[in-house]
Amino acid sequence: DNTTMAWVDNGDGFPSSDEINYQNINKLHYSEICLISPFFLDYTDFKFWPSLSYSSIYNEFSLSASLAASRKVNFKKFNFNFVIHDMFSVKWWSTNRIENYYPSLEISMISQFDKVKVLAKSVLNKNKIIGAFGFSYEVNDKLVFRNGIDPNKDFSFGIGIKNNFLILDLAFIPQSVNPFKPSQQITIIFIPQ
Fold first, then answer.
1. Could you tell me which of 62, 72, 70 has the C-alpha nearest to residue 86?
2. Per mean pLDDT, which range of 11-20, 59-68, 127-136 is the poorest?
3. How far is Cα 70 from Cα 81, in angstroms, rounded to an integer?
4. pTM of the model
5. Where are the beta strands (DSSP E) in 19-175?
6. What is the spatial distance between Cα 158 and Cα 147, in angstroms, rounded to a whole number?
7. Cα(126)–Cα(193) distance, rounded to whole angstroms?
8. Which one-letter DSSP state was computed for residue 7?
9. Is the pLDDT of residue 75 over 70?
10. Whole-angstrom distance, CA of residue 54 vs CA of residue 91
11. In angstroms, rounded to a whole number, what is the distance separating the alpha carbons of residues 121 and 124?
12. Do the bridges between strand 166-173 and strand 47-57 make them parallel or antiparallel, or are there none, so unpaired?
């Protein structure tokens, strides 16, 4: 495992991007399974998102729990979504290390123009604002093409496939400004009937 030396903790036990020396990582194998079940509380306009997850990296594993809250606001052709991530968040590693995360505020805006959706997103985390931009083209109700750019100026593209019981998202980052090689992400969402 060559990732243990990458995190240079400043002593607070909270990982942040400025504490990671990516030059110390030349290989990474990470997998995660997460269960999220959103719900509304009576008399509120907020949706709550509790999650439980299992992660593994090489021979180590972790269990984590977190809670987020979101609220949608529509204004003409613009849909805004406000999310407070990590209202509560803790991750227990098999190495006896415990990680906690600071809450962050995400504000996203989506606007639809015929079959094209435009997304702009910003996240406030520890007094730092990070933004991203993207768009998607909906071929039909089962197939979507996407692309975007993140705060590191990494360009990505993807495809979404949907049917009545499953959503499959494939994302690709062909070239990255950080030292990692091109990467892919696969997300599978099962829709209960």
1. 70
2. 11-20
3. 7
4. 0.67
5. 30-36, 39-40, 47-57, 60-75, 78-93, 98-100, 104-113, 116-125, 128-140, 143-149, 155-162, 166-173
6. 6
7. 39
8. B
9. yes
10. 9
11. 10
12. unpaired
